[in-house]
Amino acid sequence: MICLQFLIFDDNNNFDSIVYGQTSVIDPASLMDESANSSFNAEGTINTILFLQDASSNNTQPIVKDINTNLSSKYLLGGKWRVDVLNNNVTYFKSNFTMIEADGSDIHFHTIVYKPISNQPVDQGPQDRLGILLKNNSNNTQVFNCNVDIYTNGVLEWKDVPITVSLINEKVIVMDIKDKKTLEHFLKNPIYGLINSIDLIHE
To answer: Rounded distance, CA 160 to CA 170, Å?
Structure first.
């Protein structure tokens, strides 16, 4: 069994989460192009609890602008995801999951859809190119940046949201969503899950 970790970062992270998996800190400066092309398909499930820390432990209260998010509640996330990579190029990335309060109320559904970019500036460095798999030499991590559209209950709610997805040591995936673009709907918390399968593509 392999673990999946989705991270949602923000400048002032005043939230916490209970998860099943591993965590890792990625140093963007250590990223470089892969020397060998990688091709694979991977899929799995999402399993996460999001909640706000004890307010007494924080001097400032984060401002969540999304009226659909209740700061006093715990949220359960469950669903599925899939990613396809061909010769270091991400060709497909999608996740469908349910978000619901721990008491069973406020249930809604999200879909995250990867948006490939066909034309990118030729002078962009590897770390700035979208949809290209990179390698971190320090911890055997593969990383790609991309933009996604996020749907709520089948309706497009947030467009062109930047995300960084990291595959750590062939065991963990981290998805770093720029949560300000989503009005902090996910409480600036990690989203975790499990990788159920990884299928290598041999050309």
So the answer is: 28
Burial class (CB in 10 A: 0-12, 13-18, 19+), 113: middle
Q: Which residues contact 179 (CB under 8 A, 6 or more apart)?
A: 8, 9, 10, 185, 186, 187, 188
* Token reading at 106: 């406020």
At 101-120, the pLDDT tens digits run 989 999 999 999 998 877 76
pTM of the model: 0.74
Tell me the pLDDT tens digit for each residue of 5-28.
554 544 444 444 444 333 444 444
The three-state secondary structure class of 199 is: strand
Tell me, what DSSP letter sits at residue 122? T
122 phi-psi bin (left φ>0, alpha ψ -120 to 50, beta other): alpha
With a CB cutoff of 8 Å and minimum separation 6, the contacts of 33 are: 88, 126, 132, 134, 135
Domains of the chain, residue spans: 2-200
